[in-house]
Amino acid sequence: DLEAVETVLAANPEVYAQNLETVRRLTPKVRDPRAGYEQTLRVLAHAKRVRPDILTKSSLMLGLGETEEELLEAMRDLRGAGVDILTLGQYLRPTPAHLPVARYVPPEDFKRYEAWGYELGFREVFAGPLVRSSYRADRVFLEAKAR
């Protein structure tokens, strides 16, 4: 509901965040059906259109079975939606009832993905096995605001 997004934006947040969570192919398996891949991109793009002065942020979990090509596509889609800040972290299975980890992403891969993010034009990128969507949020905000 884009009106709800506008209500949030009217409160003048410093950062508007909505997580894409995973790549397009895995979205139906990973996310609640009420929060689709395209819907998330539409919401983020709408937020940036309505309030270009507010930083936008999204996050992806890695290790769910995505390919590097799919990851790059998701990163491009997020930049296309005007997202400024991106965090990439390792998916960790919270309970046996949740999806299993398909792969533990090596730290050197996270470094490469971080470089891809900067090449794509994100203002700030944090990528690593223990990075979460709120990872060093204060630092991310200050550094992104300065760029």
Automatic annotation (TrEMBL):
Radical SAM core domain ranges (all copies): 1-123
Keyword S-adenosyl-L-methionine part of the UniProt annotation: yes
Keywords per UniProt: 4Fe-4S, Iron, Iron-sulfur, Metal-binding, S-adenosyl-L-methionine
InterPro entries: Aldolase_TIM (IPR013785), Lipoyl_synth (IPR003698), rSAM (IPR007197), rSAM_sf (IPR058240)
Domain of life: Bacteria
UniProt cofactor(s): [4Fe-4S] cluster
Entry's Gene Ontology molecular function annotations: 4 iron, 4 sulfur cluster binding; lipoate synthase activity; metal ion binding
Metal-binding found in the keyword field: yes
PANTHER family listed in its UniProt record: LIPOYL SYNTHASE (PTHR10949), LIPOYL SYNTHASE, MITOCHONDRIAL (PTHR10949:SF0)
Protein name (Swiss-Prot/TrEMBL): Lipoyl synthase
Source species: Thermus islandicus
